[in-house]
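Quick log. Single chain, no ligands specified.
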Amino acid sequence: MSSINNGDDVKKLVSMASSQNLLPTSTELERFNEIDPTFAERVVTMAEKQAEHRQYIERQDALRHDQALKLSGRDSLLGLLFGMLIVVMALGLAAYMIIQHQLTGGIFTIFGVIATIATAFVIGHRSKK
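-> predicted structure:
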């Protein structure tokens, strides 16, 4: 703190330092040690534990993200396989209906399957945007 004298008025200037670091500066640690000789060591130990904890949390978050990606891929594959199974069964039913001379039902089933696949494709394409 310093004083400036402008005539009769005395103004005091206060300077403050700010830091984004986890640890105080070395001069601050020295002053802390004047109060308690173990204080600086405890501050450094606390900062080390905090850094270890933050790294642990980041590793856990990365593992959860990787697991979510794997599950998402598996779910997509299962959806495609079951969708293909349903389409094949529906087309098989349509073919059977045509063979049994139920042309109208067979043709409507084929067009229904095509319409369903087209709708799923359009909705899936829009959701990716």
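Helices lie at 26-35, 39-99, 103-127.
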